[in-house]
Write a structure and sequence with these properties.
Blueprint lengths: L2 H12 L10 H18 L7 E6 L6 H12 L6 E5 L7 H7 L17 H12 L4 E7 L8 E8 L3 E6 L9 H8 L8 H13 L4 H5 L3 E7 L4 H15 L7 H13 L3 H11 L2 E5 L5 E5 L13
Parallel strand pairs: 1-5, 1-6, 2-5, 6-7
Antiparallel strand pairs: 3-4, 7-8
């Protein structure tokens, strides 16, 4: 369908909503609506159950965007389910053993703290005609360390898998070692020593990434913004009477996400595979949306 016709079609659909989506206009027009049109085409015969990968840093609004995609997908009409890579966190005892002595002092976040096979199996069973049974993780359990909670079963035509490391592939040893010896990594000595371990842990995620029919990426225009975004998210939770982390814990979590898989090293390959990449400014406004093959990694290694 010509692009003008697609826009007209979506204009009519959006008028059926009681309230318009509370979303950046450029993000809506150039990433969200094209994504949904792509999803509509892929689900047209209802024979293939589609999985979308959404990669975005912590604190940028992934969960909010995912909820808006679910709402807009109903206009197609399609039932879009959402699962976070965080829902596949390993049980507390396993995470504690795997992450013991890590340089960030965290008990979740880096590669290896998840059980990606849990989601791979769930998707396989669903695509085989069974129900979609998704794991769930509650960060409030176990005195704030988090633990698994009761899985849910949902009726779905498509699944959105979201997370900060979704789609990121392991690096070859020669390239990784060459980068580590460059002297410009921005990592501490301890972080440098642990990087090959995080890189090796990514191997277990590859079957899950292979389940995805396409990837969409959100990135900041400068990676230093991520810490402030997450601080703002915690402040909102605190205002609403929900559990919130202390500033020190937030800084450790953000550092773990940026230094376990440095974007400058791991994101170029991800962007090349992405259907579209949206770059956001410090207020989470969309600056541009580009095809993945034309996008480049935002400035600053760590921030």
């Amino acid at each position: 369908m010509p692009e003008a016709d697609v826009r007209t079609q979506w204009s009519a659909r959006l008028q059926r909503l009681e309230t318009p989506p509370a979303m950046d206009p450029l993000l809506l027009s150039d990433l969200v609506l094209p994504l949904l049109s792509w999803l509509e085409q892929r689900c047209a015969d209802r024979q293939h159950r589609v999985v979308i990968g959404l990669t975005a840093p912590v604190g940028c609004g992934k969960s909010t965007l995912a909820g808006q995609l679910v709402q807009l997908a109903r206009l197609l009409p399609l039932r879009l389910a959402v699962v976070s890579i965080d829902d596949a966190y390993r049980p507390w005892a396993e995470r504690r053993a795997r992450l013991e002595g890590n340089p960030f002092g965290v008990n979740r976040v880096p590669p290896g703290s998840h059980d990606p096979g849990l989601l791979t199996a769930a998707i396989g069973a669903w695509r085989g005609g069974g129900p979609l049974c998704l794991p769930r993780f509650d960060k409030r359990r176990n005195q704030g360390h988090g633990d698994r909670t009761t899985p849910i079963t949902v009726a779905a035509d498509a699944l959105l898998l979201e997370g900060w490391l979704v789609g990121i592939e392991p690096m070859g040893a020669a390239r990784l070692n060459g980068w580590l010896s460059s002297g410009t990594t921005g990592l501490s000595d301890a972080e440098r020593r642990w990087l090959p371990r995080w890189n090796g842990a990514l191997e277990a995620y590859r079957p899950l990434w292979a389940c995805c029919d396409g990837f969409w990426v959100l990135q900041p225009d400068h990676w230093s913004r991520v810490a402030r975004w997450r601080m703002q998210a915690e402040a909102r939770q605190r205002r609403h009477g929900q559990g919130a982390m202390a500033a020190r814990e937030v800084r450790s979590l953000v550092r773990a996400s940026l230094a376990s898989l440095p974007p400058v090293l791991y994101h170029p390959a991800l962007l090349k595979r992405a259907m579209a990449v949206a770059t956001l400014d410090g207020r989470r406004r969309c600056l541009r949306v580009e095809p993945g093959a034309q996008a480049s990694v935002s400035s600053s290694l760590i921030g």
